[in-house]
Design a protein that fits this description.
The complex is a heterodimer of chains A (108) and B (384).
Chain A (H helix, E strand, L loop, with lengths): L1 H46 L11 H4 L21 H5 L4 H4 L12
Chain B lengths: L1 H16 L1 H38 L3 E7 L2 E3 L1 E2 L1 H7 L4 E14 L4 E8 L9 E3 L7 E4 L1 H6 L7 E5 L5 E10 L4 H4 L2 E5 H8 L5 E2 L1 E6 L5 H11 L3 E5 H12 L4 H22 L4 H12 L4 H33 L3 H8 L16 H27 L3 H5 L1
Parallel strand pairs in B: 5-10, 7-9
Antiparallel strand pairs in B: 1-2, 1-12, 1-13, 3-11, 4-5, 4-12, 6-9, 7-10, 8-9
The chains are: A mainly alpha (108), B alpha+beta (384).
């Protein structure tokens, strides 16, 4: 019965670690959420930001919500995408959902 | 209860007898789960960050397009838009991109009026006079520059200009400010050589959220070449960007699920001769079919639960303690200035259950079903 005891103890330890992380993340979220939200909102509203500064390689990856209509494949229609970020951005829903009635002006 | 423990003990001994094969499965299985979980945790935390950002974004951004491309917007548009019912403040935004040949990095230059409040996320202050700037942590790192230093940029007339760094945005704000160089409005206009009566675009405040669509339609009616971008469209853009159902995330997800399905299919379509013999002997020495099934259930559960827990814990450590360095390499692309992810831990039970359902359940099924087929066969036929 030693092996099963070791296995159960190890599993229990992993579960405790996972549960501990879940509880910790909830507590951190609760305690810092309002402060972080207010600080971020203040920053965004003063600097008038619209997008996350993640990909700085091209206009349409730096500001996906402000890009031209042709983005991300903007060099010519069906041009292969240059940047890995382009593979993260999915095409607009109306291209793959025919029944979609959404009329979007911003690229998705 | 003791019976279950004994079967579990037997299952563990059985797994240890084929330790290298099972260890291989465990490592691949845990790695797959860890990759999937890392993507889920990272994208979900980024979505949280976006939802915070969207709290402060203006209700409408009005751009002007010409020949299908973004053009500078005449400032007199602002007076007409301000006169529309339901519209509050209309502020011109002055911003643009700058490629720095010294660091080979792209920066976003942003003009700010000098009457800005103090920011918690800024060490120092925002620029208030010509020749001053506040920079993002990414810019401060690649230049490198600190408070009180000077940075050199080349303006539209090909003249080198130096700006004193009077503020550096703090690291926790780097997902928003990493590549920013903020100057005074006058400096941005002069630097880019913008016509004095034009701005990059306009930020429009709409008092009632329900009226944003109507205001956008009216702006479009008055200025047909205008392109109003509502906050809801920003939200949709980022939802599509960081949704686990889209783009690269879907590609990686699909690849992992297909790989996993092959593993499960391989197990489900047949068990090895040794395993078949083992089941036959167990049946011959008096084990019931239900005992054999319980044994196989335990074997599947031990592997999948261990792999699941190890995979999820590894993903948590990877994303929230180390800032997802492996995924960041994939996402970085050509960006020279790329933010370091220091995300606040955000994990929901939904994500955990989604992962468990997609990985543990099919594996346990694929272990039990072929064993059930072998267990209901006559022991003599199996061992022969």
């Amino acid at each position: 019965m030693i092996k099963s005891k070791i296995f159960l103890a190890a599993t229990l330890l992993e579960l405790v670690l996972l549960a501990g992380f879940l509880v910790h993340s909830r507590r951190v979220e609760k305690s810092t959420e309002s402060l972080r939200t207010s600080q971020t909102a203040e920053l965004v509203s003063v600097l008038q930001l619209t997008d996350l500064s993640i990909w700085t390689e091209a206009r349409y990856t730096r500001h996906p919500s402000q890009a031209d209509f042709f983005s991300a494949f903007q060099d010519f229609p069906a041009a292969l995408e240059h940047f890995p970020a382009g593979s993260v951005v999915s095409p607009p829903t109306h291209l793959w959902l025919e029944e979609s009635t959404e009329t979007t002006t911003a690229p998705e | 209860m003791l019976r279950h423990f004994k079967i579990l003990e037997f299952a563990l001994s059985s797994l240890l007898r084929r330790r290298y094969k099972n260890l291989g499965i465990l490592v691949v299985y845990a790695f797959t789960i860890s990759v999937l979980a890392s993507i889920l945790f990272l994208t979900d935390s980024l979505k949280q960050e976006v939802s915070r950002v969207l709290e402060g974004v203006p209700e409408l951004i009005v751009q002007r397009t010409m020949a299908g491309r973004h053009e500078l917007t005449p400032i007199q548009y602002a007076d007409t838009i301000r006169a529309l019912p339901g519209v509050g403040e209309v502020r011109p935004r002055y911003w643009g991109y700058y490629y720095d040949p010294l660091t080979k990095a792209n920066y976003t230059l942003m003009g700010l009026s000098s009457d800005q409040p103090e920011l918690q996320q800024l060490e120092g202050r925002l620029p208030t006079a010509s020749g001053e700037c506040a920079i993002g942590p990414g810019v401060a790192e690649v230049v490198p520059a600190a408070l009180g230093d000077e940075i050199f940029l080349i303006d539209s007339r090909n003249t080198g200009r130096s700006f004193e760094v009077v503020g550096v945005f703090r690291q926790p704000s780097n997902l928003l400010t990493n590549d920013l160089v903020t100057l005074t409005v006058e400096d941005v206009i002069d630097f880019f050589g913008l016509p004095g009566d034009h701005a990059t675009d306009l930020a429009v405040q709409v008092f009632n959220d329900n009226e944003v669509g109507t205001v956008a339609a009216k702006i479009k009616q008055v200025f047909p070449e205008a392109r109003p971008i509502a906050r809801s469209e920003l939200r949709r853009t980022y939802d599509a960007l960081f949704s686990w159902r889209s783009g690269m995330m879907l590609t990686i997800f699909t690849a992992a699920i297909v790989a996993f399905a092959i593993l499960a299919w391989d197990k489900a379509t047949g068990i090895s001769a040794a395993e078949r013999l083992e089941i036959g002997i167990l049946k011959a020495v008096g084990w019931d079919t239900s005992d054999v099934l319980e044994l196989k259930f335990w074997e599947g559960l031990v592997i999948s639960v261990t792999a699941f827990l190890v995979g999820v814990l590894a993903a948590l450590v990877h994303v929230f303690f180390f800032g997802a360095p492996i995924l960041a390499r994939v996402m970085k692309g050509w960006s020279v200035v790329f933010p370091e992810f220091r995300l606040s831990p955000h994990v929901s039970l939904y994500q955990i259950f989604l992962l468990a359902f997609l990985t543990v359940v099919p594996y346990v099924f694929s272990t039990v079903i072929p064993s059930w087929k072998a267990a209901i066969t006559d022991p003599e036929t199996v061992t022969r």
